[in-house]
Amino acid sequence: MGGGQAVLFVVMGVAAAVSALYAVLTRQLLRSIMALGAFLTAVAVEFYVLSADFVSLVQIFVYVGGVVVLMLFALMLSASGERHPMAGADRAGLGAVLAYLVGGVLAVTALRADLPEPGAFPEQTVSYLGRALLAEQLFAFELMGVILLAALVTALVVVRKERQ
Amino acid sequence: MGDALLLLPKGAMGLLVLLGLLMGSMRGGRARRTTVLVGIAVLALGFGAGILLLGRSASFFHAALVVDRFSLFADLVLLALGVVISLAALDGPGAGRDGDDFVLLFALSLFGASVLDSAGSLIVIFLAVELTIIPSFALVAFRGEDRRSYEGALKYFILSVLASAVLYYGLSLIYGATGSVAVPLATEPETSALLLVGIGFTLVGFGFKLAAFPFHQWLPDAFEVSHPEVAAFLAVAPKLAAVVALVRILDGLGGQSGAWTFALALVAFGTMFWGNLAAFLQQGLRRMLAYSAIAHAGYALVGVAAGSARGLDGAVLYFAAYASAAVGAFLVVAFLEREGAGDSIAGLGGLGRRRPALAAALTVFLISLIGVPLFAGFWGKFSVFLGAIEGASFGWPWWGCSTVPCPSATTAT
Amino acid sequence: MLVERWISARIQLRVGPRHTGPYGTLQTVADIVKLLMKEDVRPVQADAMAFRLGPMLTAVPAVMSFAVIPFGAPLIMRDLNVGVLYFLAVPGVTAVGLLLAGWASYDNYSFLGGLRSSAQFISYEIPRTLVVVGVAMLAGSLRMSDVLEAQRSVPFVLLLPLGFVVYIVTTLAEINRTPFDIPEAESELVAGYHTEYSGFRWALFFLAEYGALFAASGFAAVLFLGGGNGPLLPPFVWFLIKTLAIVFLNMWVRWTLPRFRSDQLMRLAWKVFLPLSLVNLVLAGLVLQAVN
Amino acid sequence: MTPVLVLSAVLFATGMFGVLTRRNAITLLVSVEIMMNAGNLNLVAFSRLYQPELMTGQVFAIMGIGIAASEAAVGLALILTIYRRYGSTDVDRVRLLRE
What's the ipTM? Predict the structure, then answer.
């Protein structure tokens, strides 16, 4: 990472953390989903900084253009009566403590981890990714296709069952 | 080329997926019924092939798929389960207007389990877990007429995706610590904290999927609202496959997993204890079977935690034994339900007079579940604990033994 | 915009747009001034954040998508090695903006419009992406300049005529142009998701629509017509000619064809264009096989 | 390397906090997506460390994104259906079963 890249990384990291926190804390569903969108975009930029340009765009394509839109659809179809859908009552307490604990453990592990420094990274990730998907990871790639089929069928069955 | 034969059992389950897809385009119950019967025949052929191949091993797709002793045995159990449940579903959930959906979802999940039991990389493990789980959300919700089925499915869904996220994070840490996604793990001599935390997360993720003790709440709800056929399937297939995958992940760790083995043993103990205790307290037949399913996953975990070869054998064998008994019990429940009988255990009184054969079958299955000597369940438990004692460095196996008599009280009701 | 007003006037025999300034060239300026002078009205009950974000999220991706279009050999802002994917991914965010705008306006016409346009957007995204995959297969790269380079001798439109047609039509649908402009069907939904918008924010939607039109046309010119490749004239001019030809095609279609119904549109996307795009993929494979 | 891991730890904890404290089904899904992305960040970062030309981590991350999308699709279908029955996406109000 060069200097500019490092700055971008930090800025986007802060943006991701803040928007994630906002998404989790806000009581308005719409804002929560929008914050998720911002979070995902920030993470996509982080991917780009970490020399994963293809993954970064897949993130935008699938997550922001897909998942977030899907969530908005669900929200709008389910809340057409109330225009400012609110999330209901929460229970904090033990859950919060547990989350902080896990976060602390992870952060300490990360700080103490003894990892090698990243070496040179190929310029053209796409061709390497293509090669990996059709060689080493071919089976995972094909399996992913089956999973998408499974998800499609599952979602359809769930919705159709209800209509009858 | 001869090695490719080892994929036949999995291929049979894959073929069932295709048949399920084909069914969607068919009109008329007769054609669909024939398709299911063809599917059952295919599964049976796969079973036969699997038996002939037992003992061989090979790896495929750059070692992304590894067929060995464990996975072949697990495949056999899955195939048998597939045959039994397809037959049972013919007149149950598979018969209705959207019976084709049921068969397709079931086939997809079964196929996922068969991939999971021979996954050779962390990526494939994660994907196969998802392929097994995703269709099961719809399977649990399949009894659309019951208001509560969606609630059970939602609860199941939320805990499942949470578990997936934890598992995903854990796998990512393992990859980071070892630099490879190959399974069994290629570990360096000294264990890093990163690896330990990664394995911890992975265990928690699997714990959810196995419904092990602190993470078990979703299971009784999901089982109570779903078709008994679905419950029977979910009690065996995903758990068996997950146990085999877990064994494969922990296998490469050798002696380094001491801390986690101990944790696993505690979880196994808690699961057995809690599952049995809760089963004992249930009024409903199905919830009792659900809690007993939790307890039985605990027994299998004992085998995993033992770490010795005999313990692992025991864990897989245990599931085979458990499967025969649990599936039988759930199918009796399904049968009773179709007869219009209620779910309460108290309502079983007099069953012996009304339906002697059914009552006798239920008794045999339940006794086998308890582990009374000479029945299948007993041999499963026996080999698990034998393995545990062999690999034991702690005194804990004996606690486990002490929980065995617990469920016997349950059936005395 | 000017051209569109011209063409629409020509086709529908209107007078105005040809008489503002010499040959009506000032029509656009007049339009813009009029828009900016208008009061910016926001419905009282509308969600302020969503109301503001809506137009921005539709306009910004449209503008951003220009970044990877090669206007001529050296004229490209960023020649990403995943440029083609970038062009597919970034405008996808528009769907979020449309939904938000429809939702925020607090009125049923807008709401329906927003839902419809997003649904349409997503449905047509699939065949469109598949068509582009075919092009990427032939080029063997996702980098825009490589795609151009691969067409040095033969533009892809000759190899994949079906893909070209599917691309043009699905693009029309994606950017909500007639005959696919159900979301803003004036006769039934007033103006769709932007019914409640006025002044500057409305201008943003306007900008987004035309930005997307030009970007998508430029993209088509690069993918299928060889972009800046051509004899004699400098690449930039060739690129412009090709792009404008496609833009003209779009406008011509808009003012001559009637509108589809919403369900017809969806059926069209899934039952006609999706299979066609798959056929195109197979054809691309065959072409690749033949070339090698 | 460490900054990425710390960031992902923070994000994971944030997501977990959401899952453990919020009761709305859609918010829960949002929180889970945040957790998944913490994992993605790890994978992409680790991909630079080991045999970068194999892109293993990036492939894993792409698969993870696909999985998250499938889960979201299925989950939202469930949530919508439940909403039509109970008029709420609040997990607590949707509770007929015993604990």
Answer: 0.84
